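Dear Dr. L.,

I hope this message finds you well. Following up on our conversation about the binding site, I have prepared a predicted three-dimensional model of the protein together with succinic acid. For your records, I am including the exact sequence and ligand specification that went into the calculation, followed by the structure tokens. Please feel free to forward this to your student if that is useful.
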Amino acid sequence: MANLSVTVAGVLFKNPVIPASGVFGYGREYEKLFPLSKLGGIATKGTTGQPRPGNPSPRIAEAPAGMLNSVGLQNPGIDAFIANELPNLLQKDTVILANIAGSTIEECVMVAEKLDATDVHMIELNISCPNVKQGGAAFGVHCDSAAAITAAVRRVTSKPLIVKLSPNATSITDIAIAVESAGADAVSLINTLLGMCIDIETARPVLRNNMGGMSGPAIFPLAVRMVYQVSHAVTIPVIGMGGVTSGTDAIEMMMAGASAVQVGAAIFQDPYAPIRIIDEINDWLDAHHITDLRQIIGSVQLW
Ligand code: SIN
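The resulting structure of the complex is given below.
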């Protein structure tokens, strides 16, 4: 058994595997399947200042080697999260990353301030949701706005602050540099790529929101490339995500420079995917006589 522990922004994870925000809710459904303590961490569903019903259905569409979603940040709001979900999650002996979002900088600041007064371990600031009209990706595709929202949240919390980046920016590397300068302790990437599916019999988009975020294996090589580029452009740690479905995918993303990985769409296909991926990482390390996972972080050597 290799040492699978990793550290991100001073926080120790027992292994690098974290269900991504939006695919794991607040863990209620999954704790019936396996102990959540097996996970390195949990990124909770994006939580906003007020409850949000999300976008009208249909808001999920199958796509080749992946899926589109336009959930629209459905969530019960920060007060309900803190009162009803966080106490349960904090008992699970795993790192809790509270994913937060908002339509305005003020909303994100208010949510972060409330979380700062809790025992949550880390805050993941989502500046990259492609499915909402205000806020969301609008913050994450320009360096100025990405830096402004990061700095504003930074001022109100001493929790380790991860900023979740959009692949829909012209240069995700420039955005990463901007949020690092504004006080981010880590970045996570990539959120979904904006996509569209059309039902050719009705000539209408499949999603009621017309467009949505593409995730799944189809985006994996794009995510690996961006993780590689960002991890070489900033000094803060990178959490990689985007189409990770196996232990060898996780190893590949960590060789590209990720200190930990989030697992998203794969969980919809196999709810046990995070547990399987942890086992597969260990098997690969054992087969290669590597005793410490940290040895492979950023180990890719370009031709
Ligand atoms: C959503 O709720 O629309 C997904 C969140 C995201 O892509 O950031």
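In brief: The radius of gyration is 18 Å.

With kind regards,
A. P.
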